[in-house]
Amino acid sequence: MQRQLYLLVYPIIWLISKMPFWLLYLKSDMLYFLLYYIVGYRKKVIKQNLQLAFPEKLEAERNLICKKFYKHLCDLIFEAIKGMTITEKELGKRYTFENLEVLKELHKKQKSVLLMSGHYANWEWSGVLNNQNSYKNYAVYKKIENPYFDSFVKNLRERFGATLIKSKHVIPALYRSVKKDILSVTLIISDQSPRPDANGHRDLFMGIDVPVYTGTESLAKKLDFATVYFKVEKVKRGFYSVRFIPLAEDPNTKEDFEITRLFLNELEAQIRKHPEYYLWSHRRWKYRKTEN
């Protein structure tokens, strides 16, 4: 059944990916109308998350953010599909890097890098970074249950040379790189929602007490990798700009959980400035601490 579903959906996705951007965004507008006004996709979750993160805002303000988020989410869906056939040249015009010298300097110092990113703006096009630096490029992803779609997504994100690693394989993969003296840069989405018993560490995210993922920081300290915030900003529809914000060149000089806090500070600042570009549809605060 999984194979039949994949064979049915794949040609449709491919045809959509061949459409020009103006037509893709027309379809995105149609999908927005469907998801927001008719289906109400995860609307309850989204509105609850916005109320938790922005209790000081009026309901009308949060509703406006909600609408803008749906529009961005629909754009993101079609942009991810477009990644199937877009040329590297065209993508390079739409997904630009402002200060690659940060990575170049770290490479000169023989430092591998962990890029810490959140579910913000567009992380699906980040693979275009691969051919713009001298590192071996990795990206961590979560396995999809359908093996055919899992393979499809993996191939899609590896189009420009990056290597995808399943989250449970990232530690051995990077240890192998170290043993082979391979300098690497690895993108890790670090704003996940771990179970409360996963590592025991909690912190405030958007002012809410929640379990916080500290795996990136722990890995950086074990391997002595530099940590850098991968700051993606939406310039306009279909165009993004990335800045590399150094967090810790020598991670072991930082206090425990300090790097994680620095990452959260950067992500929170982006969310507060343009909240519509954060992924409000995932249950980031489901394990929040509540008053008895």
UniProtKB/TrEMBL annotation:
| Annotated compartments | Cell inner membrane
* One GO location term (cellular component): plasma membrane
What keywords tag this UniProt record? Acyltransferase, Cell inner membrane, Cell membrane, Membrane, Transferase
InterPro entries xrefs: LipA_acyltrans
Q: Which GO terms describe its molecular function?
A: acyltransferase activity
Q: What is its main location?
A: membrane
Matches recorded under CDD domains: LPLAT_LABLAT-like
**GO process annotations (BP):** glycolipid biosynthetic process
What protein does this entry describe?
Lipid A biosynthesis acyltransferase
